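Handover notes (outgoing to incoming on-call)

Open items:
1. Glutamate--tRNA ligase: sequence verified, structure written out, both below. Nothing else pending on this one.
2. Nothing else urgent.
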Amino acid sequence: MHAAAPVVTRFAPSPTGYLHIGGARTALFNWLYARGRGGKFLLRIEDTDRARSTPQATEAILQGLTWLGLDWDGDPISQFARAERHAEVARQMLDAGTAYPCYTTADEIAAWREANPNQVFQSPWRDADPATRPDAPYAIRLRAPLEGVTVIRDAVQGDVTFRNDQLDDMVLLRSDGTPTYMHAVVVDDHDMGVTHIIRGDDHLTNAARQAQVYAANGWALPVFAHIPLIHGTDGKKLSKRHGAVGLHEFAAMGYPAAAMRNYLARLGWSHGDDELFDDAKAQAWFDLDGIGKAPARLDFKKLEHVSSHHIAAMSDDALMAEIKAFLTATGQPPLDATQRSRLVPALGALKQKARTLPQLLEQAHFALIGRPVQPDEKAAGSLDPVSVGILSELTAALQHAKWNRDELEAVAQRIAAAHGLGLGKIAAPLRAALAGRSSTPSVFDMMLALGREESLARLADVAA
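Glutamate--tRNA ligase structure tokens:
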């Protein structure tokens, strides 16, 4: 009994722009399927369209996948660099009779289509006598079956049947010797050993024509799994009118990569009622039969919920790495050593309430600023002479206090009570002194994160 062939999946974007959120989900599904089975996840850059493909777009795709946390096996493969291999296979098919030379010009085809609307073009050279072939450039066309049907046994869509008389003899190699995208895809997938093709269902019609190329070469078909596209909240195909559609935009909005992986995995795939999970569970659970047939809808509220869960659950090291990636993605300067040393102790309190990284950093403002703290207008209003006098007393009382939460609270309550005030009444000037703002985390969380020396220095600055 032979062991099952190892799973090989691939992600094959065209480098003509940024990495779309739909492409990112396709890459994730392929990555999860391969990684959950000890297989390989390959990356192919489909750069045959030389007019639209750019190195910058390729780099953006690689950066997007790296930010999302998807690693691929081996080096990315350039489809354009394999053009000679694609031509070689087309010529082999010509020799085998599964393809034929077509001398019809583009103008002749256009004229035929105008005269025969809604009909599939059939080349007059398909069964022409070889003796009649002119000494002229020719395209190589697939000799596709004219009758019967081509059935795609799709792991998501079920059996999808195409009538062969509705499929033309597609061009494999143009008359200038360049391969077509449809042909190159099949040759590449075969040569790369791809066992499962997981891609958007906008490629479903392509699958029928590509299956005919597999059959013509005697190659085994991979498993096809065509996944529905992502729609906006209005049920229409996702586009810029719905807001963010590029993966880089989600990174810039401050959703951690771990949250994006969780959210995108659930966008069109489900495992029971499980909504929140980590990579290990996603890889163990992900299977093709959990993918739905209906388009998934992008829901920012749900994404924020997933994001808040992951931020709260992250270790401090993981969260600091996400913050670093966010600052890089938005072109902001990295944190310096002092900022990092104050932010890490504050994370425990901050991450319980933040839905995104910008929200967390907004609440962490106190840890990221230096002295002297410049209070905003509202905070400055709470620093009246009476409040400043109370802060002076508090500063003196804290000089020799143990720097833990219970002790800090006890000292503050004692000073407040001496003035006939509740603790809340001195919280506002404390916030102004420590953070320069009226809305902050707990004053005691801030003091613990800043430490004795910095906290007392900020209080003393106000009291001076």
